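From the shared-data thread, chain only:
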Amino acid sequence: MRRFFAFAWVLACLAALAACGGETGGETVADPENPPPYPPFTDENATLQCVDGLYIALPMKYGDLLLVDTEFPGAGESWKPLLSVYEKASYEAAMEEYGGGGGFLFGFLVMDQAAFEQHISADGSGIDVFATDGERYYAYTYATDVQFFRPGGAIDSKSEDWKTWEKLNALGPLVKEDFLTRNGLQSFSVQDFTDQLDAGDGSHVIMKYYPYFREDGDVRIYDTLLLHQPARQGEGGIWAVDQWLDGYGNQYLYFPDSGKPAAEHYADLQEQCDAGEHPELRTPAGAAAAFAKDFFGHETLEGSFEESREVDYAYMEMNRRLQSMVQDVMYREAEGLELLECLGAASADNWGVLGRHMYGSDWFEPLMEAVESAAVGEEQQARDRAVMSFFLATRDARTDFGTPLGGVLRAQQEADPDAFRSAAAELSEEERDALLRGSGLTGLGDE
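Structure, as tokens:
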């Protein structure tokens, strides 16, 4: 059973905390006899917890309301919790009713380079890496849901208990700032770190990865892989994916989960490659295929990859916009010319992404109804142009867009023949022929 303790200790206990006499990992050396006082936690209003050679100051004022955990059985050195703080009443009530799961306020953990790399390449919810000593990284942990709990589970936001809970939640950021200063750590921002991984600095090769190509030849849907040479640049240097973006532009960092820092792992891999192993890593395409197999579990073909000059952010943005608009239509929150212009701006690739990712959703009929409702109105030529573009982009889709859109186009032509003729005049001859063949129109009004 894990042991917790209320921390209404006095500073006289510091003399017994001899473990704080070592280095923190940076230049600061903790002295248990003379701990540095920093506001808002000074010698007069705080107790100090000494964990792994680090001071964590906690305010005495709320000592009777808190439980502190500093024991984490099974934790390794690579990823090590230091301390977790709970509201005592919520913790005990949740323990009584459910056997745990309540009252968590905040905590701290420390990780080495390998663990840090895995952290920033994953979701990382509830963990904020905010400091470093040059070798290790320090993170502030917090709940991602409301951990307040009382018998019965009810929350009364006007109660004194809730007001106390809010005060306790406000402690975490103060303790975090004090922890940084008191231990002489350097501020650290994950965002600053990731911003240094710039895909536009010329050091990356950009590859489109078509995950459905092997299955059915589909090249409308693709992820974007960014590859660099992590160990040695130039001829003979291995290639590896360090970032990738999905079809919606969500960007992910990638570090091999080898238990080593990436730099060390790739140095070893380069040596193996120099000795004749892993020949596929000598080319970006080979490294991309290795990544797809290792990370996604996908078998690929040569046509599954295509080198690109740049990341197509417009494609990703349109995928996001189209999916959001179609979802809004399902809840009747999108209509009119804005809807038509969004649909008209989408390419065949974008419709392909929507069709795969929203397969089975009840979006098609509401969308067609919304298009029909928005087809005629002010700025009629713009409405006609948008529906024509929509029709042309979906003419080869697996779903039959042509039948309902043909009816919409005929209604638009009948409503304002001049506007329809002007919109059709903006199309190429090939597009005009395709419009006539698939829509049921007998002409475009320009005969």
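Residues 313-330 form the longest helix (18 residues).
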